[in-house]
Amino acid sequence: MNTPIDSIDTALPGLVGAPAGPAGPPAPRIRSALDGGVLSVRLAGEFDHFSCLPLRALLDEGAALGARRLVLDAARVTFCDSSLAHLLDRWTGGGRSWELLSGSRSVRLLLDLWDRVGRADGAPEREPG
C-alpha cells in the first residue's frame, strides 16, 4: 500500500526571513510516500538551512511511522548546501539507510564533496547503488 505523508506534500509557504514571491527563488517542493518501511522522497527547488526544515520534519515523521530506508529522488534540486547532507547524516544515525535514486548536478557535487571531506564522525552512509 502506498501511503502518502500528506502533512508536507505540497509547495512550501514562504518562511520568515526568506525571500518570497517572484523576486525570490521558487519555493522548494517535497513529495513523499511511505510503503513497507521505505520512505520515498522527491525534491525540487532550492534547499538550504531554512528550506530544509520541512524536510527534516518529514524525515522525523517517516522514522516515527517505521521507515528504515530512504529513497531520495533529487534530480530537480537546483541548489543545496550542507544542510541536506546533515539531514542525510542525521537519518542514518538511527540505524536507517538511504540511497540516491537520482540527483541533480548540485546534489551529486555536494555528496561527492561530503564523501571526500567527511566529518569527524564520517560521511553519511548510503547503500551501494
UniProtKB/TrEMBL annotation:
Signal sequence range: none
Classification via PROSITE patterns: STAS
InterPro entries: STAS_dom, STAS_dom_sf
Residues annotated as domain STAS: 28-88
Protein name: STAS domain-containing protein
UniProt lineage: Bacteria, Bacillati, Actinomycetota, Actinomycetes, Kitasatosporales
